[in-house]
Amino acid sequence: MMFLVDLPRFLTRYFPTFMGGIFATLASLACAIPLMMDFYFSAASLGEQATWSVLGGMAITLVVVHCNFMVVRGRPQWVWGLVGVLVLCLLGVLPTIEDRPHKVIYTLAVLFPLLGLLLLNSKRHREMRSKLVDIRHQREALKSALKARRKPR
């Protein structure tokens, strides 16, 4: 079986878009979590807010990492987990305008989820997911061919 993937060309074409989506998601988390904790849990102490911010940020970061790992493994439906995180960040930050947050942080907290959604919906990201599915099919065919070549004992 011949693999039809030239790794340097593949990475040159798709890696910036893939990493841009990851960084936009993580940056939107970094901007959204403090704004949302201050707005929605203003009655909590600063220590409690910090603790829950860190724990929540770690949990959501694990979700983002797992979703991206599954996309790389050729499972494009996991991109919906990333979309969910970005939409959650965007919709969670929008009402915080009432609290008059810092303008730059608020603008970035709105901009990064929109940028992440734009990157995930871009033609290049969709092409990459399609090629990763093809690579997964080639990998599965190779596994089954190797399994069939082994002699049963």
TrEMBL record:
Keywords: Membrane, Transmembrane, Transmembrane helix. The chain crosses the membrane at residues 12-37, 49-71, 78-97, 103-121. It comes from the Bacteria. This is Uncharacterized protein. It comes from Pseudomonas batumici.
